[in-house]
């Protein structure tokens, strides 16, 4: 296993901000205090390697999702013409927990999942020249769509609903 190069204060802050997380959320993820995170980001203290590793692992998980998803999209477009895609994102932790529990163990916060979706959107645009729109899940509209179309709750149903929102 390779050693992790310690992150400096600016890198810690940039990593947190790239995830769209608050200081409090990073404290929770790293099992540290808000005051400790503030100290890391202001160069008053160095983040423990365990905390740095936890954040870098999340970044790796997001990057793997980006690669896997864009590879899948690229394969899809080998079979059919390019089109505009819609990805569901979650405006609240409660909706994320309810509708996308399979990601909670690897990306426990909706902000992390949404960060992955944003990075996928950018990668699709730059590498695949595919437009992706992020659609915030509107639970009531989604439930009505499922009822109108006699559909059960599933990732595929959410994707179909999102496509109708374009």
From TrEMBL:
Superkingdom of origin: Bacteria
Protein name: DUF4447 domain-containing protein
Record-linked SUPFAM superfamilies: lambda repressor-like DNA-binding domains
Coiled-coil positions: none
One Pfam family named in its UniProt record: DUF4447
């Amino acid at each position: 296993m390779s050693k992790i190069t310690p992150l400096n204060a600016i890198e810690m802050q940039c990593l947190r901000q790239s995830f769209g997380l608050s200081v409090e959320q990073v404290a929770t993820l790293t099992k540290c205090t808000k005051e400790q995170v503030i100290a890391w980001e202001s160069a008053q203290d160095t983040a423990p390697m365990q905390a740095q590793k936890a954040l870098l692992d999340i970044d790796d998980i997001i990057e793997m999702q980006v690669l896997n998803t864009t590879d899948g999209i690229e394969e899809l477009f080998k079979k059919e013409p390019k089109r505009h895609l819609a990805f569901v994102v979650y405006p609240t932790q409660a909706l994320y927990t309810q509708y996308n529990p399979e990601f909670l163990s690897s990306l426990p916060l909706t902000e992390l999942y949404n960060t992955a979706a944003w990075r996928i959107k950018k990668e699709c645009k730059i590498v695949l020249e595919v437009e992706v729109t992020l659609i915030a899940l509107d639970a009531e509209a989604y439930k009505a769509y499922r009822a109108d179309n006699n559909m059960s709750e599933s990732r595929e149903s959410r994707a179909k609903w999102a496509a109708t929102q374009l």
